[in-house]
Write a structure and sequence with these properties.
Length: 269
Amino acid sequence: MEYSLKIKGQAALVTGANSGIGEAVAIALGEQGANVVVNYVTHPELAQQVVDKIKSTGGNAIAIKADVSNEAEVQAMFQQMFAEYGTIDILVNNAGLQKDSPIENMSLADWQLVINVNLTGQFLCAREAIREFLRRGVVAERSCAAGKIICMSSVHQVIPWAGHVNYAASKGGIEMMMKSMAQELAPKKIRINSIGPGAIQTPINQSAWGDPDSLKKLLTLIPYGRIGQPEDIGKVAVWLASDQSDYLTGTTLFVDGGMLLYPGFSTNG
Ligand code: BGC
């Protein structure tokens, strides 16, 4: 059976794509022939490396700087994308950060920064993408859907996380934002889903895998026995953006090596 993802020529925007999970998703979409916008806010040289990598595999990509929590910058980024690629078919709402601290020491600034980037940033980008999806509608040669949005969530939309209250709250918020948008827009043939990664080896959680002791402790939380790689998420994102997953909307796919299986209960409870 021919198994084609048919993403070639679709326009994709990946936020926070100059490192970690976003980078892997951008590269995976590029490998499938999508025209990729590599969004970044700091380190343009890293964004350029991702663009070069996509081009070296025969794909198209451009880097666009925008802080996803800034409405004007988000709108300018979409305008630049439309000027370059004409439209948007796939939005991967990936940009996110952590500012960890015990709740009693958590500053309002750190609370707001995490909510603004992780949650409000996804809202602002989704809104611009949805406006274009509604304007354009379904174009059968491109996709069965009028547009696809993938929200990068986390196992922490389910697992409470001491010392990371702002981050866990942002991810819990993403779940209901994603589901409510999916409910509202399914009749318009717009599909909106999330990916909930577990521990993926990226700069955001280096303290959890950077030395042998921490890694050993981390692996007790992962039944599958290995830390995730950014490519594990890239592959799932490509499938979720393709018509192969056309009947999925409003769902979170957890890609976590079984972290959500409560491994602590395998020998106790
Ligand atoms: C966090 C990582 C963490 C993982 C599993 C992710 O959402 O960003 O720091 O390792 O969840 O706990």
